[in-house]
């Protein structure tokens, strides 16, 4: 299925899947302005629900026909990837302040017959998250380049460590993006403002690859994404720089100038 999204001149967001078009109305400009999306635009695995989020913290669940099924605001202004669907689409994980909130979802929106959404307290403000239900883990990124792994079942903390800037160790950088490998055995994460991309081995609890400092301007973040077979890790700066990077776990990292 082909899924394309774009933004119209009136500020509305439109998405297509299998030829069906979803239109999400513009935000209330008098209230909070038209803001760009920040890491939250994703169809549920079934294609029955479209998740739309913005940097002001408003989240909408929409039907393929454009109807808003549910809408709420979360604490703070997320800066990274802060939502994740479960593989079956029945659960939506959202970083809300210092909690990961697990919402029950069906094609009509938030499931109304469920108990209040479950919360996992993650100590402090979450900038980005990733979920791997097969391994039962949630990864969260925080200030001071702090990476944490949590057990989905009981919310227990499995791992915590800081990865400071190797050049400017006194800087309080953030973990900007996290992504589990397809096998769930490794976790890729980037940091910002000093941009590094690292691959973390979950069982060994250690970093097995590190790009070293790859530059970036202040506030610029690198998004990370695995290839389907887990053989390559792609990372690209969110804005400026014009560089797309590819890191193969067994080879030297590469950079391709996009112009």
What does this entry look like structurally?
- By secondary structure, this protein is mostly beta strands.
- The protein has no helices and 24 strands.
- The chain is globular and about 50 Å long.
* Structural class by helix and strand composition: mainly beta
The proportion of residues in beta strands is over 45%
> Major sheet, described briefly?
5 strands, antiparallel
- The helix content, as a percent range, equals under 10%
What features would you highlight for this structure?
single chain, 259 residues, mainly beta, five-stranded antiparallel β-sheet, four-stranded antiparallel β-sheet, 24 strands
Please outline the helices and strands:
Layout: E1 3-7, E2 13-17, E3 20-24, E4 41-43, E5 50-53, E6 58-62, E7 68-73, E8 83-85, E9 91-96, E10 99-106, E11 109-110, E12 118-121, E13 128-132, E14 137-141, E15 146-151, E16 157-162, E17 174-180, E18 186-192, E19 197-201, E20 206-210, E21 222-226, E22 233-237, E23 243-247, E24 254-257
Antiparallel strand pairs: 1-2, 2-3, 4-5, 5-6, 6-7, 8-9, 9-10, 10-11, 10-12, 13-14, 14-15, 15-16, 17-18, 18-19, 19-20, 21-22, 22-23, 23-24
Give a summary of the structure in a few sentences.
The chain is an all-beta fold and 259 residues long. The protein has strands spanning 3-7, 13-17, 20-24, 41-43, 50-53, 58-62, 68-73, 83-85, 91-96, 99-106, 109-110, 118-121, 128-132, 137-141, 146-151, 157-162, 174-180, 186-192, 197-201, 206-210, 222-226, 233-237, 243-247, 254-257. Strands 8, 9, 10, 11 and 12 form a 5-stranded antiparallel β-sheet that branches. It has a 4-stranded antiparallel β-sheet with strand order 4-5-6-7, with no helix packed on it.
């Amino acid at each position: 299925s082909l899924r394309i999204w774009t933004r119209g001149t009136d500020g509305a967001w439109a998405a297509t899947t299998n030829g069906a078009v979803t239109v999400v109305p513009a935000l209330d400009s008098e209230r909070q302005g038209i803001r760009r999306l920040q890491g939250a635009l994703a169809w549920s695995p079934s294609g029955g629900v479209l998740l739309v989020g913005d940097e002001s913290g408003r989240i909408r669940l929409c039907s393929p026909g454009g109807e808003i099924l549910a809408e709420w605001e979360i604490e703070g202004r997320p800066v990274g990837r802060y939502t994740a669907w479960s593989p079956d689409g029945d659960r939506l994980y959202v970083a809300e302040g210092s909690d990961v909130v697990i919402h029950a979802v069906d094609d009509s929106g938030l499931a109304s017959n469920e108990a209040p959404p479950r919360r996992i307290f993650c100590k402090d403000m979450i900038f980005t998250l990733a979920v791997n239900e097969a391994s039962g883990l949630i990864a969260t990124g925080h200030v001071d380049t702090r990476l944490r792994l949590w057990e989905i079942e009981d919310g227990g903390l499995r791992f915590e460590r800081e990865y400071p800037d190797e050049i400017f160790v006194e800087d309080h950088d953030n973990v900007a993006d996290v992504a589990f490998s397809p096998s769930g055995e490794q976790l890729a994460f980037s940091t910002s403002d000093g941009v590094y991309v690292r691959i973390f081995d979950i069982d060994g609890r250690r970093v097995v690859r590190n790009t070293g400092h790859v530059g970036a301007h202040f506030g610029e973040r690198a998004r990370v994404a695995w290839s389907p077979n887990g053989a390559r890790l792609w990372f690209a700066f969110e804005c400026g720089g014009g560089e797309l990077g590819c890191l193969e776990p067994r080879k030297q990292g590469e950079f391709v100038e996009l112009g």
